[in-house]
Amino acid sequence: MRGRELIEAAIAGNSCETNGFWVGHPTDEAKKIYYQETGITEYTGKSEVDFNIKINSDMIWLSPELDPRSFKSPDGTPMWNCFHEERKSLGSGGIFAECESVAEIEAFPWPDPGNLDFTNCLEDTRYAYEKGLAVFGGMWCPFFHVLCDFFGMENYFVKMYTDPEVVHAATRHIVDFYLEANRRYLELAKPYLSAAFFGNDLGTQLSLLISPDSFDEFVLPYLTEIVQGIKAFGLKTAMHSCGSIDLIIPKLIHAGVDILHPLQAKAAGMDAESLAAKYGGQLVFMGGVDTQELLPFGNSRQVKEEVLRLREIFQGKFIVSPSHEALLPNVPFENVMAMSEGAKQM
Question: More exposed terminus of the chain, fewer Cβ within 10 Å: N or C?
Answer without folding.
Answer: C
